[in-house]
Structure formats: C-alpha cells, structure tokens
Amino acid sequence: MTSTPLTRDAFVERYGRYFGVKRIEAIRKLNYLLIEAKGEGPYVYDTEGRRYLDLWNVGGIHGLGHRNPAVVRAMEEALRGEDFGSLFYFSEAKARLAETLARTGPPGLEVSVPAVTGSEAIDQAIKIARGATGRTEILHGDHGYHGVTGFALSMMAPGEMRDWAEPLVPDFRAVEYGSIDSLERAISERTAAVVLEPLRTDYDGRAPKDDYFPAVRRLCDEHGAKLIVDEVVTGMGRLGRLWGIQRSGISPDMMVTAKGFSGGLFPMAAVMLRPGILDFWGDNPYRIISSYAWSNVGASVSRAAIEETLRLLPSANAMGDRLAATLEDLAARHPGPLRSVRRTGLLYALDFRDDLAGAFFVMGMFQRGVIVVASSQNMAVPKLYPPLVLGDEQIAEFAEHADAMLASLG
Hints:
This protein is an alpha/beta fold and 410 residues long. Helix content is 39%, strand content 16%. It has a domain at 69-307: 3-Layer(aba) Sandwich (Aspartate Aminotransferase, domain 2), CATH 3.40.640.10.
C-alpha cells in the first residue's frame, strides 16, 4: 500500500529533526525547501504535485535528464546479471568502461583509477601527483570549486564554505585563473601539480583565452609538474564536447570526472591518467582503495551514459544555440538588472548588477517552478546547466518566467 506523500510542513514536522532543525529552518527561510517525489526528463516533481524545470541538474548530475531511458535500461540489465563486485577484483564491466574512457578521452589518458565522488577523485589525483613527483606544493585557480573533502576543500577560496574547517591541508596556493603570468610567477621545482577546470564554473562561468591551456601545459612540462584538469562539472557534454578540455587542444596528465558520469543513477567517479604516473607505486598495487568505487552495475551505467551523451550532443548543441538566442534577447530587453550573458558550450552565466539582484532572480525563479543556481562564491552570477534533452517547449517556459522576474527587478 502506497502512503500519501507528505507536504513540506508535514515532512518538516515528522523528519526535520533528523536533518538538523536549524539547517532545515534556514532552508525554509530562503523559500528553497523542495521535498522531491520524482524526476523525469528535464523536470523534478515535489510531493505536493508541483513541477520544476530543472536547469541546474545539481551541476550536471542529471545532464542527460532525470531517469534517461537509455541509462535506466542499462542499469536494469546490469542489475539482472551483475553483482556489485569488489574493489579488489576486475570484471568485464569495469574493463569495458575503462576502455571507453581511454577511447573517448584526451590522448594518452589510458589508465583509470576508480572513485565514488568528485571530491574523492580530486583528493586521489592530488595524492598521486605528490607521490609521483615527490613534491608537495599544489597550485590551483582562484575562486575554483573542486569539492569539500580535505585536499579539495583546501582549494576553496576563504569564506563560509571553508573557514569553519580550518586548519586545512598545507602547501596549497591560489593563482589567478586565466592569467599565465600569475602561474609563471608561482610555478617552480617545488610544484607537484597545477589543478584547473576548463572554465571557472562556480565563481563566474568564465572561460580563459584560447592560448591559456597550451601555455599551462608548457609550464607544467618545463617544471616537471602534473597538470590535473577537473571535469566534474565541465565533462559529459557540458561544454559542447564530451570533455571540456578537448576544446583547448591539449591533454592533461590527469583528468577527474564525476557528477554526470553515470547519468544521475549511480555514484561513480574516476581519475584518468597517463600510465607511467603510477610507476611510483612499485610492487604495492593497493596504494589507493575505495570500497564502493566502480561497482559492476555502476560501470555498465557509466558506459551507457557516455554513449548517450555522444548521441545527444549534436542536437543538444543546436538546442544550446536557441537557448543562447533567448538569453541574449532577455538581456537586451532588461539591461537594468541583467548586464550580460556568457555562454560556453551548454553552460550559461548571467551577470546581474549585484549579489542581491542575482539572489532574487534565483529565488524568484524557484518560486515560479524553474531551478537555476547561483555560485556559492558569487551570487551576482546565476548559471544555467540545461539537460541535453531540453527542448523548445522548455526554452519557452524558461523565457516566460525569466522575462517576468527580470521585469520585476527593474
């Protein structure tokens, strides 16, 4: 017998204390409390029957849409014939995923190290770089977002997201993202790795100039440092290619993927790297272990998600052009609150006049049934992460609500 879905008030009354009463109340005060019932395609539905157009997708976890049919079928088939598996054993499901990553990724990244989450994979990549180089210094772009575990959080800009957890891991140093001069002044024979996203996703959605990554690659080679590219958000089609770094024409030493890597159905992540980097492990093949990394079921799901991403990208990029035209029209008609719009592939950054206007836009759109996201570090720049299955109907739906919100902001 199916129970009646709980309203928001009933949910808070019954379960709120198990999540932390003050935390739940803080979310309620923001008018951002959503009790999920299900997701389907580009939409999320709450327990009271409200439908939300999801243009955040948790930064790309649901980049193929919620419950993408091709990925669901792969998971159902895997569950019928696969066991979860063990981190100590290999399987054909894991092998086929690793082979697919090597075939579709940047040249030279032939080895995959399994992980469960993006933060965990970033931590693994940094530890591998330190072990391989015998160095400790990590350089990273300023105002980046690489996760919230120990090594990853150490790259977060100072502020509410990290200050409460201090002291963090030492020997991390920020450089100005997009400035090759800043990196050139900082990099040295002490540098184990340079960690960068293909564009700065959390802060302003700004991509560097075309000559940036080739210059970063050259400096890392000159100083013997490893280049780690974080594709947790920018991978799986977000920037119009399977992997965002493929836009730059260079290949990193290591690349991290997670979020949309398994189509929103299974926790999967990976570090892809050049084979010789792991030589320092010597005779001990278990320098990194992760109990839940790369289930046999998850491996089948991730391989299906990669194939589905490649299938959808041509139509998704065409959709992206239509969404970009809509955004440019909105910016032209509402120059007061919305100063400009930036697009890189299928990631859109909306520059508002100030933090307050950006926050009102995000909250107001949520109340209208459209989910967009603001940066944890810069509320003035809401961003759109449309699913690859977005259609003209959803673009029109977004435009109607955005037009009304922008008009209300003056």
